[in-house]
Amino acid sequence: MKSAAYYFLGNLDFLSHIYADVVPFMWALQLDGNPCDQNTTTLTMPMLHEGAFIKKYMECRPVEPNTNPRFTPGGPQL
């Protein structure tokens, strides 16, 4: 599940975004051996390397738009 920090202009809902997007990103970084944590809007330490977990995260939640469908009919929803 992906979540925006705003549902509509003026309606801030950053906690759903943190739990749906930021926390899984942090887990991927840490599982790859990066000694960092999330501090509101920044990492406490820089990412040292990109391993299998962060690559999988980026595959599921690409930074750049791509041609992959958001939902696959009959498949799991990301």
| Broad shape | flat
Order of helices and strands: HEEH
Q: DSSP helix count?
A: 2
Classify the oligomer: single chain
Q: What is the count of β-strands?
A: 2
Low-confidence stretches: none
Helicity, in percent? 25-40%
Major β-sheet strand ordering: 1-2
Task: Return the average pLDDT rounded to an integer.
Answer: 76
End-to-end C-alpha gap:
5 Å
Radius of gyration: 14 Å
In this structure, how is the largest beta sheet organized? 2 strands, antiparallel
Task: Give the domain tally.
Answer: 1
- Which structural class do the helices and strands define? mainly alpha
Content of β-strand: 5-15%
Describe the structure.
The chain has one domain (1-70). Strand 1 (38-39) and strand 2 (42-43) form a beta hairpin. It is built from two helices and two strands; from the N terminus they run αββα. Helix 1 packs antiparallel against helix 2. The protein is mainly α and 78 residues long.
What topology emerges from the helices and strands here?
Elements: H1 14-31, E1 38-39, E2 42-43, H2 52-60
Antiparallel strand pairs: 1-2
Helix pairs in contact: 1-2
Notable characteristics:
78 residues, mainly alpha, two-stranded antiparallel ribbon, 35% helix
Structure in a nutshell:
With 78 residues, the protein is mostly helical.
